[in-house]
Write a sequence for this structure.
């Protein structure tokens, strides 16, 4: 009998220490994307970027200074970072529930019962001093409820961490794009200003020839129309340049003009941004993205919440107790024979809750289904983004080469037409047409170069994979396997 009792005691202790878990085993869903990139994507040999190597990818010293300022001052990044601290603290609170809370207590209790209310018929004065340790309602986690909530809180914290890293990548890419847009608008505005100057000179020349009777009204109005069109284009580009500068100021968290000792920057053609980033198999690339990692952590949190909901069907055992000294006088509190203790285990067994516990399990399981779908959708969106950018990298490179060749051809054509006009062989309408085509081609070349650089910038965000060193990721992958 004694041996049986001892075995039972050991089983109870083992259950109290280890407990069991009603949380489903986590299995990472298969990535719902093809095993290879589309045939239109040309994979190139390149360099894999390690987390935080944005300085190597963006060599322009001015752009590097702007990105560093944004990482320091951007308000949205501050909010995302503060949310990490909040989630970490919430996880710490939840994790503390797995351990007993022990308090050091000291108290004095005094009461006076009048003679009229006393059983003995005389005034009763009672005084008591207590000192000791108290155990505050510690739950024995037999069914893994507290452990499941702890796992859910940890996954929520790691999800916030990954989301912050995803935002950090986006901020770097957004600052680079805003800077490149500002460069594009600046170069195109300078080109428009030069066009305004040359067309103003041409109009003035034709006006003088008109006064001399050499040129007619048609030539003058054609030249004047071309001049006014150049003015309109310059005003439009100046508006876009101001908008690009305002966006850059917003991303930086302060005006660019307030930044001291900014290094000189490069023009669009000298940026040195390379798009030759290694892009392995889709599963290898996508599962390292911080946005995908954040979605997976949310899925793991939903999975853990199922275990906590299931545990509500089983009894909960909580322990409350204290141990210390008690005496009627403070001077004799720590004397011999004043030991005092109390122990109060409470067993709570759900009998009837009108289906609340069952509904909570249904809610938890439904939220896991939602989390799985959101995780798979995140992977699919990431696959499309990377595939589009890899294809754009190649096609925009071809587009840029053709556009630059076109711009050079239009320059040669303009020089030839202008020479023919000076010789009296071509009319002014041919000159205006050549000017428009040359101006349009140069503007197009700057625009396409900016688009190619923008696609390369977005590739950094898509493939840099700053989630590779996410805290706790290795341990979670091991548990998933």
């Amino acid at each position: 009998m004694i041996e049986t009792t001892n075995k039972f005691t050991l089983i109870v202790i083992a259950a109290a220490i280890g407990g069991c878990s009603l949380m489903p085993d986590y299995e990472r869903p298969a990535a719902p994307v093809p095993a290879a990139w589309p045939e239109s994507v040309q994979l190139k040999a390149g360099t894999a970027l390690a987390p935080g190597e944005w300085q190597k990818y963006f060599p322009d010293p001015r752009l590097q200074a702007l990105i560093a300022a944004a990482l320091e001052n951007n308000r949205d990044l501050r909010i995302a970072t503060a949310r990490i601290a909040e989630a970490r603290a919430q996880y710490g609170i939840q994790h503390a529930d797995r351990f007993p809370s022990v308090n050091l207590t000291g108290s004095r209790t005094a009461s006076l019962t009048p003679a009229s209310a006393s059983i003995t018929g005389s005034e009763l004065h009672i005084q008591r001093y207590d000192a000791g340790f108290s155990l505050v309602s510690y739950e024995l986690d037999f069914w893994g409820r507290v452990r499941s909530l702890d796992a859910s809180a940890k996954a929520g914290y790691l999800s916030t961490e990954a989301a912050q890293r995803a935002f950090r990548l986006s901020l770097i890419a957004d600052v680079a794009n805003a800077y490149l847009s500002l460069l594009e608008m600046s170069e195109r505005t300078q080109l428009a200003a030069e066009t305004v100057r040359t067309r103003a000179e041409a109009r003035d020349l034709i006006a003088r020839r008109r006064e001399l009777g050499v040129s007619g009204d048609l030539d003058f109005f054609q030249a004047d129309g071309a001049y006014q069109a150049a003015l309109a284009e310059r005003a439009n580009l100046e508006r876009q340049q101001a908008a690009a500068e305002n966006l850059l100021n917003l991303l930086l968290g302060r005006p660019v003009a307030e930044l001291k000792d900014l290094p000189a920057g490069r023009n669009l053609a000298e940026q040195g941004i390379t798009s030759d980033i290694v892009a392995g198999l889709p599963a290898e690339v996508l599962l390292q993205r911080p946005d995908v990692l954040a979605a997976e952590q949310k899925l793991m949190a939903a999975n853990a919440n199922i275990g906590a909901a299931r545990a509500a069907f089983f009894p909960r055992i909580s322990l409350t107790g204290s141990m210390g000294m008690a005496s009627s006088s403070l001077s004799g509190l720590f004397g011999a024979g004043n030991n005092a203790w109390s122990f109060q285990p409470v067993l709570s067994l759900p009998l009837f809750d009108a289906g609340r516990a069952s509904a909570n399990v249904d809610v938890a399981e439904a939220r896991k289904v939602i989390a799985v779908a959101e995780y798979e959708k995140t992977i699919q969106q990431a696959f499309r983004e990377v595939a589009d950018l890899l294809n754009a990298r190649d096609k925009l490179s071809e587009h840029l080469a053709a556009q630059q060749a076109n711009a050079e051809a239009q320059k040669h054509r303009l020089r030839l037409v202008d020479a023919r006009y000076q010789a009296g062989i071509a009319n002014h309408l041919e000159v205006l047409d050549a000017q428009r085509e040359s101006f349009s081609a140069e503007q197009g070349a700057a625009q396409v170069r900016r688009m190619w650089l923008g696609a390369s910038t977005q590739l950094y965000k898509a493939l840099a994979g700053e989630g590779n060193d996410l805290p706790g990721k290795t341990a979670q992958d091991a548990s998933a396997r």
Notes: The chain is about 60% helix and 10% strand. The chain has a mean pLDDT of 82. The first strand starts at residue 102 and ends at 113. Residues 145-211 form the longest helix (67 residues).
